[in-house]
Amino acid sequence: MARVVLITGGMSGIGLAAAQAFQRGGDRVFLVDKQETPAGQEVVRQSGGAFFNADVRDAPAAERVAERIVAAAGRLDVLVNNAGIARDHVLWKMSEADWDDVVDTHLKGAFNYLRAAAPVFRRQQSGKVVNVSSINALRGKAGLANYGAAKAGLLGLTRAAARELGPANVNVNAVAPGWVETPLTEHYPAEVRGQALRESALGRLGKPEEIAEVIMFLCSEQARHITGQVIVVDGGQTA
Fold first, then answer.
1. What is the DSSP letter of 158?
2. C-beta of residue 228 within 8 angstroms of C-beta of residue 173
3. DSSP H/E element including 207
4. What is the full DSSP assignment across 172-191?
5. DSSP bridge pairs for 129
6. Residues 97, 36, 210, CA angle at the centre, nearest 5°?
7. What's the CA gap between 69 and 5, in Å, rounded?
8. Long-range contacts of range 21-24, CB-CB < 8 Å, 24 or more positions apart?
């Protein structure tokens, strides 16, 4: 049976790669983002889903998205919380807005969509959730206090939600990518990219499709006994 999948930040990068993987698997894909891309629209069209132009920080919008998906498809099987931004600065140069925008997008955004999806999952007695975190939730990185704090918060949210939703047969896990070639990372200077490359045990940087494959696994029946976990996918950057 085709699953009904909701992905935030699904129009590009890891979110788009995951959307394409679910669509190829025959699932119906719904995307939330603040921008549209031709590739994302094609996923929505081919899968019979829909695109919602929304900011994940908007809690009422998250409720409306969940309601509209259930009205259209009758259920919701998978939630991938992927939406994210970067506002990198060392602490003494980081504005309050830089902090709030990043934490609210990554962490509050995931909370908003988890809270909206939870009643649907509990009613169905089934569901899969994957939160996209980062290796910078597991280590310190200069200039990333807001990003690292938000991504670390996602891991706490993942574990608490796994406990709360486990009785409803819902698996909640996280992936922690290292450097991945996405629109979010393409603006970084060459020396930052070079450092990530030197850290890699495999001698190369990650691709969105490689993260998407792990997301697909965590949403599969093969991972039915995995919950509350974080899977690092970083080419050995943290090895």
1. H
2. yes
3. none
4. EEEEEE-SB-STTTTTS-HH
5. 79, 172
6. 85
7. 9
8. 21/209, 21/212, 21/213, 21/215, 21/216, 22/47, 22/78, 22/216, 23/47
Question: Residue 198 and residue 219: Cα distance in Å, rounded?
Answer: 32
For the chain, how far is it from start to end, CA to CA, in angstroms? Answer: 39
DSSP string, 140-153: --TTBHHHHHHHHH
Length of the chain: 239
> How far is 214 from 80, CA to CA, in rounded Å?
12
Q: Degrees (nearest 5) of the Cα angle 216, 222, 225? A: 110
The pTM score is: 0.96
Annotated catalytic residue: which of 66, 147, 171, 233? 147
Catalytic residue check, 147: yes
Give pLDDT tens digits along the chain (239 positions): 899 999 999 999 999 999 999 999 999 999 999 999 999 999 999 999 999 999 999 999 999 999 999 999 999 999 999 999 999 999 999 999 999 999 999 999 999 999 999 999 999 999 999 999 999 999 999 999 999 999 999 999 999 999 999 999 999 999 999 999 988 787 788 888 889 999 999 999 999 999 999 999 999 999 999 999 999 999 999 99
- Provide, for the chain, the percentages of residues in helix, strand and coil under a 3-state DSSP scheme, each rounded to the nearest 5: 50, 15, 35
Instruction: Identify the structural domains of the chain with CATH numbers, from first to last.
Output: 4-233 (3.40.50.720)
